[in-house]
Amino acid sequence: MQRNKVIEVNHVSKRLGNRTIIDNLSLHVNEGEIVGFLGPNGSGKTTSIRMMTGMIKPDQGSIKIMGYDIQAEFSLAMKHIGAIVEQPALYGYLSGWENLMQAVRISGMQINKERIEWCVRMVQLQERMQEKVQRYSLGMKQRLAIAQALLTQPKMIILDEPTNGLDPSGIIEMRTLIHKLRDETGVSVFISSHLLSEIEQLCDRVIVIDQGKTLAAKEMSSLGHAAIALTVQDDQLQSAYHLLQLEGLHPVLQNARILIQEEAKRIPSLVNHLYQRGIHVYWIEKTKQSLEDFFLDTTQGKERK
Amino acid sequence: MEYIYGTVINEWVKRKKRVYWIISVYALLTFALLVAEVFVKDTSVQQAPEVQWQEQLQAQLAQLIPYKDSLNTSDPAYRQVANQIIIAEHQLAAGVNPEPTGALHWINNDMSGVFIKYILPLIIIIIGADVFSADISSGTIKLFLLSPQGRPKILLSKLLAVFLISSAVTVAIHLLSLCVGLLREKQFGLQDNYVLLDIFERTIVITSWEFTLLGILLTMFSTFSIACMVVFFSLILGHHSGFATLASFWFIMIMDSLLALIKNSAPIVQYFPTFHLDFISHFTGRFDGHSDFMTSLVVLCATNAICLAASWLSIKRKNFAG
């Protein structure tokens, strides 16, 4: 089923000084979708998010939110998104409730008390709203910032590294909250993170970028396909990899293993083939390609090219 | 309009403690002065019988006229002395006491001089010098940038917030002066007369309440000019909150004292904006310098325009991410 696009980034480029930070980046997020945005440090994730939220202007290309161009129709476009870019924008010396009121007053919308209370309940901060934010833990600040972003009933929430600095229970709470948000409100979530396991458990789709370019975009459902893991000696890993490529396979290196997607009945002949070339296979396991494999394969595959 | 109103309320919420603090300190100082006046009188000295104001004014004139004749017409003090003589002569001729005894006179006394040159700028710096810089250095500017209002409205609304909050503090201080005046004088003195100069430097007589209204209007204009300068520094030096406050303080409160030293040798210096903040002195004949009312008006309007244009360009282009 064709779903509406909440945000469309079309051929966007950005230069800072002599360096191209974002190079012809294109991506989109559908309604009700949770999309993970992955990339190594310095790959251009935060710059992309800053452009998507109107904080910096792209040199080329266009960004549309619900069909509104973020440059030409800024106010109309921004009414449809809520965002947390890097650290939550909260006043430590004000209470949680007053922080929400600060956002309400400059939202340009009529937001009633019930809506504010609903947002507070959603992030489970009812008991702490009268306390000053400087007494909040980082996880509570992140949740308050999400409540702030939800006030205007946006179509999409953009979260830049929301689990950064959170302890394990904070990460679990954040994951539960994002799922709950999507399930109860249908809001799309665009989330950048370094924690691949988190993205794997949260997202419907991942987009990988490096050096400002989109390297791959993949549905999470297609990642989990069964694969065969072959364990060989470390010094024979590269040779085995190339041999399997010559056999027309698409092997993926994972630690000291090689993952291949192949029918079980062909495995003995492949192992035999490797053996005849002097490569000994020590273990054969059934496994599946994780997001980490996909990410490493995408980013390292680019380097190999 | 909603965004502007919202931002003004937001800034008020963030700054109300400072406002209460400023008003409390001012009230405390006023109260201390009153107490000192009532209780610390030197009773050992025999009080001279009260001298009539006409005699005082005539004595003043007797000193001013030869002083004026001794001055060169190019001397900045010449114009001030000449205007004071014109006003004093009119006060004598029309029988207008230069020191009316109504409570409104307590407000009118606050409208110029030290209040406008030092106290008002200090109040505005305390209230607004970090209006942008605090948000930029702490990252909370993102709350504004991510709202649908757009950058020019952020600038306009923050400037308005500084102006309105500072004006409210000024009005509160004037009300405090009125209360003290009422306690002392037991009457408002709405119909007391003042001899002033109009913009063509002709003498006119207006009532106390008219003078108060004129003074509040002109003080608000000066407040707006100071707010423009403070907001400009806060935005331009946004990544260093303390530095932005220091720059405002230096430019608005210190620079004019230094420039005054070279005012005679470098006439261009007289167009420095803070020399013209004491706007109402043109009407009372106490303006320090060659400029007339229209020159001061042009200088302050130009300052506002330059600060606004530079701030607008800065906020449009600034990369707040650092």
UniProtKB/TrEMBL annotation, chain A:
It comes from the Bacteria. GO terms for molecular function: ATP binding; ATP hydrolysis activity. Residues 7-236 form the ABC transporter domain. PROSITE patterns: ABC_TRANSPORTER_1, ABC_TRANSPORTER_2. Pfam families: ABC_tran. This is ABC transporter ATP-binding protein. It comes from Paenibacillus montanisoli. The keyword DNA repair does not apply. Belongs to the ABC transporter superfamily. InterPro entries: AAA+_ATPase, ABC_transporter-like_ATP-bd, ABC_transporter-like_CS, P-loop_NTPase. Keywords: ATP-binding, Nucleotide-binding, Transport.
From TrEMBL, chain B:
Keywords: Membrane, Transmembrane, Transmembrane helix. The keyword Membrane applies. It comes from the Bacteria. It holds the Pfam family ABC2_membrane_2. One of its GO terms (molecular function) is ABC-type transporter activity. The chain crosses the membrane at residues 19-40, 118-138, 159-183, 211-236, 243-262, 293-315. One of its GO terms (cellular component) is plasma membrane. This is ABC transporter permease. It comes from Paenibacillus montanisoli. The lineage of its organism: Bacteria, Bacillati, Bacillota, Bacilli, Bacillales.
